[in-house]
């Protein structure tokens, strides 16, 4: 199979191959002419059943810089809104000769279903499925961490011994899940911080330390990286915490907590940010923040994934 569905099944060598290929792609983006002819003649479809400006634009830029033809598909205003199934949509893409499909879907498992269904021959890349996984976000996060800690061109290096604290709405976060599996594969030590109501079922069987107090976690884990997560109100159908003020006071990276971090501690956020809720503007805009770097590196990482999936080399999953 030639798909990238999750990070849970990626080996360390496979993850490093993607990150090292992203280093090569990042180097090409420093040139005056950024486009490569690698995927000329290939058709890549952005199949988005959920809105996401950052992810869609990043994938579109990545595909175009590899010279692929890009087709953007939005569920809104399409036949999907009229009741067309995923199967029928996939068969339509098969009929037009799609070589690669980047799918974002509100249902967990949708990407795996598309990849294993036999409805389409194209390589499938998961751009986020429900609360399951978002593999390229985790890969760009790891790429950003590695570059900050080891410098540019740090090929072959993992993240052995690096302490990463991930804070916030773990229950609804596919980013947290993908980061956990990938960072563990790369040798990092991962901790989750959240109120009990925002932890997913079964999390205590995962290879992760659990904290309910952010202050305790920062003191005990001495993190190299603090990754803040967005509160995903659109996925919440109940009251998971009393109010925004209490959440910010207990689990937000406010100015006081930020000032208590080491000067070398990285501050990350997958975006979009709720400033004043999960992160203060001072922390988000500081030199320790990698928020904009994550966006920049996202293009290089997605170029690497598309290249490995569609140009002949395969990532087995």
From TrEMBL:
<dbReference type="Pfam" id="PF02729">
    <property type="entry name" value="OTCace_N"/>
</dbReference>
<dbReference type="InterPro" id="IPR006130">
    <property type="entry name" value="Asp/Orn_carbamoylTrfase"/>
</dbReference>
<feature type="binding site">
    <location>
        <position position="55"/>
    </location>
    <ligand>
        <name>carbamoyl phosphate</name>
    </ligand>
</feature>
<feature type="binding site">
    <location>
        <position position="272"/>
    </location>
    <ligand>
        <name>carbamoyl phosphate</name>
    </ligand>
</feature>
<comment type="function">
    <text>Catalyzes the condensation of carbamoyl phosphate and aspartate to form carbamoyl aspartate and inorganic phosphate, the committed step in the de novo pyrimidine nucleotide biosynthesis pathway.</text>
</comment>
<feature type="domain" description="Aspartate/ornithine carbamoyltransferase Asp/Orn-binding">
    <location>
        <begin position="160"/>
        <end position="309"/>
    </location>
</feature>
<feature type="binding site">
    <location>
        <position position="54"/>
    </location>
    <ligand>
        <name>carbamoyl phosphate</name>
    </ligand>
</feature>
<keyword id="KW-0808">Transferase</keyword>
<dbReference type="GO" id="GO:0004070">
    <property type="term" value="F:aspartate carbamoyltransferase activity"/>
</dbReference>
<feature type="binding site">
    <location>
        <position position="82"/>
    </location>
    <ligand>
        <name>L-aspartate</name>
    </ligand>
</feature>
<comment type="pathway">
    <text>Pyrimidine metabolism; UMP biosynthesis via de novo pathway; (S)-dihydroorotate from bicarbonate: step 2/3.</text>
</comment>
<feature type="domain" description="Aspartate/ornithine carbamoyltransferase carbamoyl-P binding">
    <location>
        <begin position="2"/>
        <end position="146"/>
    </location>
</feature>
<dbReference type="GO" id="GO:0005829">
    <property type="term" value="C:cytosol"/>
</dbReference>
<dbReference type="InterPro" id="IPR006131">
    <property type="entry name" value="Asp_carbamoyltransf_Asp/Orn-bd"/>
</dbReference>
<dbReference type="GO" id="GO:0016597">
    <property type="term" value="F:amino acid binding"/>
</dbReference>
<feature type="binding site">
    <location>
        <position position="271"/>
    </location>
    <ligand>
        <name>carbamoyl phosphate</name>
    </ligand>
</feature>
<dbReference type="InterPro" id="IPR036901">
    <property type="entry name" value="Asp/Orn_carbamoylTrfase_sf"/>
</dbReference>
<dbReference type="GO" id="GO:0006207">
    <property type="term" value="P:'de novo' pyrimidine nucleobase biosynthetic process"/>
</dbReference>
<dbReference type="GO" id="GO:0044205">
    <property type="term" value="P:'de novo' UMP biosynthetic process"/>
</dbReference>
<feature type="binding site">
    <location>
        <position position="230"/>
    </location>
    <ligand>
        <name>L-aspartate</name>
    </ligand>
</feature>
<dbReference type="GO" id="GO:0006520">
    <property type="term" value="P:amino acid metabolic process"/>
</dbReference>
<dbReference type="InterPro" id="IPR002082">
    <property type="entry name" value="Asp_carbamoyltransf"/>
</dbReference>
<feature type="binding site">
    <location>
        <position position="104"/>
    </location>
    <ligand>
        <name>carbamoyl phosphate</name>
    </ligand>
</feature>
<feature type="binding site">
    <location>
        <position position="134"/>
    </location>
    <ligand>
        <name>carbamoyl phosphate</name>
    </ligand>
</feature>
<protein>
    <recommendedName>
        <fullName>Aspartate carbamoyltransferase</fullName>
        <ecNumber>2.1.3.2</ecNumber>
    </recommendedName>
</protein>
<comment type="similarity">
    <text>Belongs to the aspartate/ornithine carbamoyltransferase superfamily. ATCase family.</text>
</comment>
<feature type="binding site">
    <location>
        <position position="174"/>
    </location>
    <ligand>
        <name>L-aspartate</name>
    </ligand>
</feature>
<dbReference type="Pfam" id="PF00185">
    <property type="entry name" value="OTCace"/>
</dbReference>
<feature type="binding site">
    <location>
        <position position="137"/>
    </location>
    <ligand>
        <name>carbamoyl phosphate</name>
    </ligand>
</feature>
<keyword id="KW-0665">Pyrimidine biosynthesis</keyword>
<comment type="subunit">
    <text>Heterododecamer (2C3:3R2) of six catalytic PyrB chains organized as two trimers (C3), and six regulatory PyrI chains organized as three dimers (R2).</text>
</comment>
<dbReference type="InterPro" id="IPR006132">
    <property type="entry name" value="Asp/Orn_carbamoyltranf_P-bd"/>
</dbReference>
């Amino acid at each position: 199979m030639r798909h990238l569905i999750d990070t849970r099944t990626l080996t360390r060598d496979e993850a490093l191959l993607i990150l090292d290929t992203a280093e090569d792609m990042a180097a090409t983006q420093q040139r005056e002419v950024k486009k490569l002819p690698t995927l000329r003649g290939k058709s890549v479809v952005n199949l988005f059943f959920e809105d996401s400006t950052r992810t869609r634009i990043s994938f579109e830029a990545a595909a175009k810089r590899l010279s692929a033809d890009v087709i953007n598909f939005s569920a809104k205003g399409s036949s999907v809104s009229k009741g067309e199934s995923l199967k029928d949509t996939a068969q339509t893409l098969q009929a037009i000769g799609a070589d690669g499909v980047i799918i974002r879907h509100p249902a967990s498992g949708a990407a795996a279903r598309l990849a294993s269904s036999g409805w389409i021959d194209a390589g499938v890349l998961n751009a986020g499925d429900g609360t399951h996984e978002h593999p390229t976000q985790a890969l760009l996060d790891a790429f950003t961490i590695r570059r900050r800690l080891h410098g540019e061109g740090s090929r072959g290096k993992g993240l052995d011994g690096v302490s990463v604290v991930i804070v916030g709405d773990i229950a609804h976060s596919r980013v947290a899940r993908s980061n956990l599996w990938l960072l563990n594969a790369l040798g990092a030590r991962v901790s989750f911080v959240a109120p009990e109501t925002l932890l997913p079922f079964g999390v205590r069987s995962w290879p992760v330390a659990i904290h309910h107090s952010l202050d305790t976690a920062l003191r005990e884990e001495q993190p190299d990286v603090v990754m803040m997560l967005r509160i995903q109100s659109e996925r919440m159908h109940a009251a998971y915490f009393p109010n925004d003020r209490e959440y910010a006071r207990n689990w937000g990276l406010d100015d006081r907590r930020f000032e208590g971090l080491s000067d070398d501690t990285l501050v990350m956020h997958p975006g979009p940010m709720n400033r004043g809720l999960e992160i203060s503007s001072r922390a988000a805009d500081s030199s320790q923040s990698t928020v904009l770097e994550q966006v920049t590196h996202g293009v290089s990482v997605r170029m690497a994934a598309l290249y490995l999936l569609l140009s002949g080399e395969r990532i087995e999953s």
